[in-house]
Amino acid sequence: MASFWAKEVPATIIVAALLIWIMPMMIGTYTLTVLLIYGMLGFSLGLIWGFGGILCFGQAAFFGLGAYTYAIAAINIGDSTIPMLLAVLVPAAFAALLGAMMFYGRLTDVYLGVITLVVTLILFKFISSTAGPEYVIGKARLGGFNGIPGFQTLNVPGRPNDYIYGDPYFYFCAVLLLIVYLLVSWLLKSSFGRVAVGIRENEVRVALMGYDVSARKTVLFAIGAAIAGLAGGLFANWGEIVTPNLFSLGQSAEIIIWCIVGGLGTRIGPIVGAAGLAYLKFLLGQQSMIDNTLLTGIILVLFVLFLPKGLVPAIASLWRISFGQRRQLPRHGARRIRSGGARHG
Amino acid sequence: MAEIVLETAGLTMRFGGVVATDNVDFKLRAGELRCLIGPNGAGKSTFFKCVTGLLTPTGGQVFMRGHETTGWNPRQVAALGVGIKTQVPNLMDGLDVHENIWMAARRFLPMQDAMRKASEVIERLALGPIARTELGRLAHGERQRVELGLVVAGDPWLVLLDEPAAGMSADDVERMSDIIREMTRTAAVVIVEHDMQFIRSIASTVTVFHQGAVLMEDHVDRVMADPTVRNVYLGKKA
Question: Any idea which UniProt keywords this protein has (chain A) (predicted)?
Answer without folding.
Answer: Cell membrane, Membrane, Transmembrane, Transmembrane helix
